């Protein structure tokens, strides 16, 4: 395996990086010259990029046959829509390096957690926006072939209605003066309303007790997908707090054993089974 770090340059930023875990072909494992790829967008309330939702998740998907990538996007004080541009550039670079990185450009999934889920849903639903078009991006180059969301934020209205800690970074970001005048802010604040039949097939999972990003976010997005006749798979687990990542010992964080939730760990195998149906010739193992 080769680890590559690719600096991303956009018209608004030079600070984002794309880290890839590239499995090189070998004669001992035939048929793996062009693997499926996954771009992971960790959460962190747009104030940080969570390590717990980055490398452990990338390596988990790599072990099941993927070329795995992590987007370290810009966070506060850098403002929206900079992260969206960085997500577009990351998708563009992954497909532009398809041969060099031994991947299939038509089998690129993205997986976002929490605020990273907001970013993943944004690039999936706003890929054909005039803003990105004016920046030189084509929807076909930057929209993923599959979207996966873990306890993702999609509706600012649902966030405002929840009992979010007033010191939460994401809440502070949403209240930043002038943010409502930034490009695509209105669309980004209600991503469920941006779903069309061009939105990629989507896998969603969340936990019902989540007090940071209410489960209504996942339900609203699933309802929009259903209305647009976009295939989706929705899993709401009855236990578990926000930010569980893999929900096992690999991603146990400061919350200690509260980050271990055996009832939630099946989300990974469920997502792999779903991806197998979506990319039947990709050789994905579940």
Helices and strands, with pairings:
Blueprint: E1 2-7, E2 17-22, E3 35-41, H1 55-62, E4 67-72, H2 82-96, E5 103-113, H3 114-125, H4 130-134, H5 139-142, E6 146-150, H6 156-161, H7 169-174, H8 185-189, E7 202-207, H9 216-227, E8 232-237, H10 266-278
Parallel strand pairs: 3-4, 3-5, 5-6, 6-7, 7-8
Antiparallel strand pairs: 1-2, 2-4
Helix pairs in contact: 2-3
Organism: Schleiferilactobacillus perolens DSM 12744
Keywords: Hydrolase
Protein name: Xylan esterase lipase
The helix/strand class is alpha/beta
In the CATH scheme, the class would be Alpha Beta
Number of contiguous helices: 10
Q: What integer value in Å does the Rg equal?
A: 18 Å
Compute the number of strand runs. 8
Strand order in the sheet with the most strands:
1-2-4-3-5-6-7-8
How many strands, what sense, and barrel or not for the largest sheet?
8 strands, mixed
CATH topology group: Rossmann fold
End-to-end C-alpha gap: 20 Å
CATH superfamily: Alpha/Beta hydrolase fold, catalytic domain
CATH architecture group name: 3-Layer(aba) Sandwich
**Kindly state the mean pLDDT as a whole number?**
92
Q: Into which percent range does the helicity of residues fall?
A: 25-40%
Percent range for β-strand residues: 15-25%
- Series of secondary-structure elements, N-terminal to C-terminal: EEEHEHEHHHEHHHEHEH
Using the alpha-carbon principal axes, give the shape: globular
Number of domain units: 1
Low-confidence stretches: 163-169
Description:
α1 (55-62) links the parallel β3 and β4. 30% of the residues lie in helices and 19% in strands. An eight-stranded mixed sheet has the order 1-2-4-3-5-6-7-8, sandwiched between helices. It has helices at 55-62, 82-96, 114-125, 130-134, 139-142, 156-161, 169-174, 185-189, 216-227, 266-278, and strands at 2-7, 17-22, 35-41, 67-72, 103-113, 146-150, 202-207, 232-237. It contains ten helices and eight strands. By secondary structure, it is of the alpha/beta class. It has a single domain (2-278), classed as 3-Layer(aba) Sandwich (Rossmann fold). The radius of gyration is 18 Å and the shape is globular. InterPro entries: AB_hydrolase_fold, BD-FAE-like_dom, GDXG_lipolytic_enzyme. Pfam families: BD-FAE. This is Xylan esterase lipase. It comes from Schleiferilactobacillus perolens DSM 12744. GO terms for molecular function: hydrolase activity.
């Amino acid at each position: 395996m080769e680890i590559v770090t690719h600096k991303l340059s956009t018209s608004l930023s030079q600070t984002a990086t794309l880290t890839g875990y590239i499995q090189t072909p070998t004669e001992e494992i035939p048929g793996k010259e062009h693997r499926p790829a996954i771009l992971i967008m960790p959460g962190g309330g747009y104030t940080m990029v969570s390590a717990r939702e980055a490398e452990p998740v990338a390596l988990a998907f790599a072990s099941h046959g993927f070329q795995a990538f992590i987007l370290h996007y810009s966070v506060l004080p850098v403002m929206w829509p900079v992260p969206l541009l960085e997500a577009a550039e990351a998708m563009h670079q992954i497909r532009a390096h398809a041969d060099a990185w031994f991947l299939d450009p038509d089998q690129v999934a993205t997986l976002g957690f929490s605020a990273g889920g907001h970013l993943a849903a944004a690039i999936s639903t706003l890929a054909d926006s005039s803003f990105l078009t004016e920046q030189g991006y084509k929807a076909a180059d930057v929209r993923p072939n599959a979207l996966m969301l873990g306890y993702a934020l999609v509706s600012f209205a649902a966030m405002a209605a929840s009992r979010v800690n007033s010191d939460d970074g994401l809440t502070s970001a949403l209240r930043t003066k002038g943010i409502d005048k930034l490009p695509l802010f209105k669309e980004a604040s209600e991503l469920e309303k941006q779903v069309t039949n061009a939105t990629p097939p989507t896998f969603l999972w969340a936990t019902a007790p989540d007090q940071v990003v209410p489960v209504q976010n996942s339900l609203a997005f699933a309802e929009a997908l259903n209305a647009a006749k976009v295939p989706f798979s929705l899993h709401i687990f009855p236990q578990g707090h926000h930010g569980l990542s893999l929900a096992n010992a690999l991603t146990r964080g400061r919350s200690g054993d509260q980050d271990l939730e055996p009832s939630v760990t099946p989300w990974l195998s469920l997502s792999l089974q779903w991806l197998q149906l979506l990319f039947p010739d990709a050789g994905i193992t579940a």
